[in-house]
What we know:
Layout: H1 2-67, H2 69-73, H3 77-84, H4 89-106, E1 110-114, E2 120-123, H5 141-147, E3 152-157, E4 164-173, E5 178-186, H6 189-198, E6 201-205, E7 211-214, E8 222-223, H7 229-238, E9 247-248, E10 251-256, E11 262-266, H8 273-278, E12 282-289, E13 296-302, H9 304-434, H10 437-465, E14 473-476, H11 477-494, E15 498-502, E16 509-512, H12 514-531, E17 539-547, E18 550-556, H13 564-567, H14 587-597, E19 601-606, E20 612-619
Parallel strand pairs: 8-9, 15-17
Antiparallel strand pairs: 1-2, 1-5, 3-4, 4-5, 6-7, 6-13, 10-11, 11-12, 12-13, 14-16, 17-18, 18-20, 19-20
Helix pairs in contact: 1-9, 3-4, 9-10, 9-11, 11-12, 12-14
Bound molecules: adenosine-5'-diphosphate.
The site of adenosine-5'-diphosphate (ADP) has 21 residues, from helix 12 and helix 14.
Amino acid sequence: xxxxxxxxxxxxxxxxxxxxxxxxxxxxxxxxxxxxxxxxxxxxxxxxxxxxxxxxxxxxxxxxxxxxxxxxxxxxxxxxxxxxxxxxxxxxxxxxxxxxxxxxxxxxxxxxxxxxxxxxxxxxxxxxxxxxxxxxxxxxxxxxxxxxxxxxxxxxxxxxxxxxxxxxxxxxxxxxxxxxxxxxxxxxxxxxxxxxxxxxxxxxxxxxxxxxxxxxxxxxxxxxxxxxxxxxxxxxxxxxxxxxxxxxxxxxxxxxxxxxxxxxxxxxxxxxxxxxxxxxxxxxxxxxxxxxxxxxxxxxxxxxxxxxxxxxxxxxxxxxxxxxxxxxxxxxxxxxxxxxxxxxxxxxxxxxxxxxxxxxxxxxxxxxxxxxxxxxxxxxxxxxxxxxxxxxxxxxxxxxxxxxxxxxxxxxxxxxxxxxxxxxxxxxxxxxxxxxxxxxxxxxxxxxxxxxxxxxxxxxxxxxxxxxxxxxxxxxxxxxxxxxxxxxxxxxxxxxxxxxxxxxxxxxxxxxxxxxxxxxxxxxxxxxxxxxxxxxxxxxxxxxxxxxxxxxxxxxxxxxxxxxxxxxxxxxxxxxxxxxxxxxxxxxxxxxxxxxxxxxxxxxxxxxxxxxxxxxxxxxxxxxx
Length: 625
Ligand code: ADP
């Protein structure tokens, strides 16, 4: 259970860390966006303030220079004269000319004089098609204000000229009595043109929130919010904006700052192209209130650039953080890899050390085993030596046994010449006494021959009895057969056995040891003779030949053949079918061993014509072959 919980806790921790990293990442990215936006807005605000200052100053200076113009007309005697005699056409004409001149010099739009009823008596545009002369302007607020002794300034669209302008109106006094009103209309078109060319978004709204001057033409004669009905009807009465349709701007206040600055968005679908440029935009709106007149200068700054750079800043921050995270990840991964490789190295070192210890242990064990093995080999070698010695002794013993068996025959063989020698020597004495030296000589020759024969027998026995070394030499098969037969020829003769020899003219030479091979052959001959003891036909055959680098010696007899019980056990030590005292059951075992040492093979089988055949197979001597 605890094993299951641990990774879950690890995973929880991981996901918490991941959440913290993602949240921090978002916070930092948003923070950089916010800071960049705020810096941008601060910059715009600063610029806006400065620009507004410039705009207000230029506007004030543009208007102020006309402020005193109406008052100066009071000083003109022609004007005073005309107002005192308004029906005097001559005076009116003079004033018209004077006003025309002043208007041209002051670069104002139009200058005109009204009587106390608000009707224009003289005007600088007296000779223009839309002359103000004779027009009743009493409904205009600036006229009314002036008639009420209040100097007035008023922005409005001319009801006759249809041209917008700023009106300065003031009463004309003579002897401290108002006799008329002087009005100067100044066009702000030139100023507005410079605003448009300036590229800023700046508007001027009057005290009723009607925009009457704008660097963006589309915003002109729009209202900041909807107008109350009282104001609308007042404007209709005063014809301030004449026939202009005043629509309310759909400004949405997005955010307001403590200094009155606002972020607004403007929605005014279906408007002119200029306007659609602003539509949907976020704008920074700054307002500067003016006194005399009570106007409001509104400076609009496009926030899209600031937004764009804030977005770029946040994107850059995101990329930088991403890069930083990647860098951290890379270094962490590197650290991990180094750590892993170090621990792998340590593991490898430990494994190497363990291996070294194991190798040492194994080497030690191997040394011990090698030592044991060496001892065993030595023991084995010793045992083999003992075995070989025993085998040699056994072979020698069996040889001696054969000799023992043959001792009766040998004794007989030696007794006969001895008897003959006795007789011959007795005869020699008698013959010597008689002086028959010739016969004595003959006898002595025969005696010498008999001694030679006896010597040959004993020599043969001596040779047979000697211990031969285990060395392979060239062995004459013919000679070995002759020597072996010599030892059994007495028995062959006694038992009336017919001997058939088939030995090639050219001798057969095999590899082996003559003495031992003779021992084998004597054993085979004796076995054959033993087998024929009760046979009617007694025939011992010896057949030798060489074939394909091998030498074969076949010893056959006409006995009863190999008994069934003996067939499988011929080469089994101490197996014999012979009566006690006649056989030890070691002859074939020892013979097979001797032949085996020569690199040959001994086998026995029953012949098809009866009797047994034993075959000695040897390697032919390659030198003499
Ligand atoms: P032993 O002659 O002392 O019995 P061998 O090893 O020479 O010992 O022979 C083992 C046995 O093999 C004999 O007892 C005999 O039964 C059988 N044998 C050997 N030679 C012949 C043979 N020529 N004919 C029949 N049987 C034989």
